Every structure is written in structure tokens, then in C-alpha cells.
Amino acid sequence: MVEMGKRVLDSGWLAARSTEVAATGVQLTTTHPPSGPSAPWMEAAVPGTVLGTLTKNKLVPDPFYGLNNEAILDIADSGREYYTFWFFTTFECAMKGNQHVNLNFRAINYSAEVYLNGHKEILPKGMFRRHSLDVTDILLPDGKNLLAVLVYPPDHPGSIPPEGGQGGDHEIGKDVATQYVEGWDWMTPIRDRNTGIWDEVSISITGPVKISDPHLVSSFFDGFKRAYLHTTLELENKSSWLAQCSLTLQVTTELEGNISLV
Amino acid sequence: EHLQTHELSIPPKTLLQYTLPPLFFYKPNLWWPNGMGKQSLYNVGITVDVKGFGESDSWSHQFGFRKIESIIDSVTGGRLFKVNGQCVFIRGGNWILSDGLLRLSKKRYMADIKFHADMNFNMLRCWGGGLAERPDFYHYCDIYGLLVWQEFWITGDVDGRGVPVSNPNGPLDHDLFMLCARDTVKLLRNHASLALWVGGNEQVPPKDINAALKNDLKLHPFFMSVVGNTALG
């Protein structure tokens, strides 16, 4: 049985500018995967941003040294396509019967198309939302799974007036995204507006019943002598049969080293 | 006494919300902000076993017992904070984000936040034009005792101010804003350091967003009665 739990996908990622890749997402994740970090593909920063990937590969100067930022093309001048990037990786996950696998993105800026082994899913807009896809039926039982993500910049990246200023032309505020990226009194504009897979990517393997979003709250009485821990959670039975479950809650505190009090 | 097991049945292809009976603690070690005491954290583990399968899923989180209250003082107009019934003199810093290319590693968060704790700060305010900070940020604020004031994504970019004039009614898609806000709350709500949600930077969000945020984030009536003072949020 494959070990259950979360596995972070934070290595082995490649990236390429979308306008320089002829293959479709289906082709990239079936017949024509990139062979390695050779042009137009490069090693990617995931989690991170497109500009972070370009900086990592020394294709642009580090924007935070001197006036280097001035030498980097702003999305207002380049168009959104210039900072629309493919990200690609592979992973193995040979799950067994009654196991389920979710592919999780903790945050993407701003929207994306996900291709896994030739299957397409849309990740809708919004910089501050999680996406979780049940990929159980898509995974290949043996060997490598091919994952490609086409990441689009914010819909309204805006432009920066020559004199700079607070939030550029304010267009970025029309999206649900971070707003400092058009520049502020303390910050130069971020040329790609922080486009990218900017937080953790993972796969999580569970059995038929999955735990989601537990909520822990404490209440106190008698001057903090008595306390109660209130726990609410979501449970999803992904199977096609009635699941008889034992739900266990355990609270421990570490006394010293690896010794715990139960 | 800090171990509970409950039997339940879940119909096929069903998502359900389940509330466990409250778990009792006598004199738990409390979580305190930096400079007021220890940042005691308990490990909360939840496991679901399915008959005929075995362990199906598990979850764990470091949880701090603390009660944070804040009110606007009618005399000074300033916001007052209490933690575990004790007034806190806030020594805070403004936080936008750690790095403009979002290279947000655990190591970097640990160094940044420990640095603020070493400066004797006890609060970080995450500005509305920056990020909803990440779980790793909150983890180290839990560890080092930094209270967090987290703002949603409303600034002068979205209130009709500025030249050229910004959109006066916030982001174009208010439903998307609320979807992101609700998901962010679910992502971060269990952290001991999370002290206050704020609608935006130095202003009130558009009416419908503000009303929805206030409604969704209001204290559950059960906890209002526990607090015993409806002026405390």
C-alpha cells in the first residue's frame, strides 16, 4: 500500500514562455513532454513567480539591485502573453485500491489550465484561493505522471505612469490580487505582477474518507482554570459504499525532547 | 482525558460537517505574545479510520490556548488588545511581504519573524496591498509570539481615489473577493497568532463586501455567551 499523506511537489519543475512552446497541454503531458532544461525550457522556481524563474536563470538582472528593474520589460509594454508561462514536472504515485489522490495548489496568481496525463482542468481566477483536484482516475498506476500548468497573469496588470506613484494606474485593483505590484512609495513595480505558482503544490493520498478544513476553537471559564477545545471538521466519503468510521482526536504536549504527555 | 474516539457512518459520495463534543482541559498552558510568557502549543491530531480499510486520513496542527479580545477605546479612539484577560501594549511593525519575487521559504520566514521577535515586537500588521500571509508565516508567528493583524485586499487602488481615478467599488468581482476571503480564513484560522481580521488598508471595503465580511467573521453566539461581554469581538 502506498504511504498516505501529503507529498510536496517542489523540485524538478521546468518552465517556458507560452509563446515559445508549440505543443499543446495535451501533447506536453502525453507524447511531447519537455526533455529537460534546454531552450525554451528552463529550471523553474516553484513555488515562486515567473520573474523569479527568469532571475534564477539569469535571463533578467536581479530587479532588487541598483536600477536593474528598469532593464526588465514591464507587462504593460510586453503584453500579458510575455509573462504567460508553462510549468512542467513529473511525479510517481502508484496508489492501490480504495485510495484516492488529490492534486493541490495552495495559491496561483492569477488563473491557470492544468494538464495531467492529457486531461485538462481549469483553475479559475483569484490569487488567494486554494485549488484541489481529485486526480485518482487520471493517474497512471505505473510510472511517471506528466503535469503541465499554463499560468496566466492577472486580468488587469495595468500600466505604470512615468512618474510612478501609488499603485500605478490602479488597474490591478480590479482583480483579487496583491496590489503593491504596480509600485508604491516604498517599492518599484514588479514587472510580471507576481504571476506564477506562488505557493505550495502537493499531492495528498487518502483512503475512502478524507478530512478537510478542521476548525479548532477554545473557550474558557473560571479565570482560565477550565478550558474546552471545540473541533469541527468536514469529512468526505469518496467511495460508493457506506463508510463506518472511527474518528479520533488526540491532544498532546511535548514535555522535553520527544517525550509527550497524553 | 485528551483522547476521544467517535463512531460515525458516512453515506457514499457524501460531504458532511461534523462537530466533536468539547474536549476538557484543566489549567491548560496558555499561549502568550512575545514578552508576556511562553508560547505554549499543543499538538492536535485527528485521524479517521474506516472499517475494512484502516487509517483513511489524518491531520495535525499546533494549537495554542489563548483568548484575544480587542475593542475601540471610546476615550482615545485607539484599539485596545487583551490576551488571556491581560492588557497588551502593542509594539507592532508593518509587514507587506518577505520578498517581491515571492521566494517564501520556511527558512526565510523563520529568520524574518525571529528577527522581529528579537526586536521585542509583539504584533505584525499584514497590509491590505500585500499578501494574505502563508501558513509558514503564521507557524513562526505562533512559535515566536507575534500577534498578526491580517487585512484583506482593499487599498486606495479600489476606492475611487488616485490619479487616474481607481475603480470606486473595489475589485470588479465581489463574489470572487468573498470566495478568496472565505478560503483564506479557512486556511489560517487555527493559528494562535492570528489576532484580528481587517477589511482593508485605512478604509472600509465596498458596502456589500464589508457586510459579508462582518457577518461571516462575527463570533458564534455560543462564544459570545462564553465571553460574557458583547462589546468584545
Task: Explain how this protein is built.
The complex is a heterodimer of chains A (262) and B (233). With 262 residues, chain A is mostly beta strands. Chain A has helices spanning 25-28, 50-56, 75-78, and strands at residues 5-8, 14-17, 42-43, 85-92, 100-105, 111-116, 119-123, 131-134, 144-152, 201-206, 209-221, 226-237, 243-256, 259-261. In chain A, strands 3-2-4-9-6-7 form a six-stranded antiparallel sheet. The model of chain A has no long low-confidence stretch (mean pLDDT 94). In chain B, the strands form three sheets. A four-stranded parallel sheet of chain B has the order 8-9-10-11, covered by helices on one side. The radius of gyration of chain B is 20 Å and the shape is globular. The chains are: A mainly beta (262), B alpha/beta (233). Strand 12 of chain A pairs antiparallel with strand 2 of chain B.
What portion of residues of chain A is helical? under 10%
Give me the Rg of chain B, rounded.
20 Å
> Mean pLDDT of chain A, nearest integer?
94
- What separation lies between the terminal Cα atoms of chain B? 31 Å
Termini separation of chain A comes to 29 Å
Say what oligomer this is: heterodimer
Order of helices and strands of chain B: EEEEEEEEHEHEHEHH
Number of helices of chain B: 5
Strand order of the largest sheet of chain B: 8-9-10-11
The pLDDT mean of chain B sits at 93
Helix content of chain B: 10-25%
Q: Overall 3D geometry of chain A? A: globular
Helix and strand topology:
The complex is a heterodimer of chains A (262) and B (233).
Chain A lengths: L4 E4 L5 E4 L7 H4 L13 E2 L6 H7 L18 H4 L6 E8 L7 E6 L5 E6 L2 E5 L7 E4 L9 E9 L48 E6 L2 E13 L4 E12 L5 E14 L2 E3 L1
Antiparallel strand pairs in A: 1-10, 2-3, 2-4, 4-9, 5-8, 5-10, 6-7, 6-9, 11-12, 13-14
Chain B lengths: L2 E8 L3 E13 L15 E9 L3 E10 L4 E5 L6 E5 L2 E3 L3 E4 L10 H13 L4 E4 L8 H10 L2 E5 L22 H15 L5 E5 L8 H11 L3 H7 L6
Parallel strand pairs in B: 8-9, 9-10, 10-11
Antiparallel strand pairs in B: 3-4, 5-6, 6-7
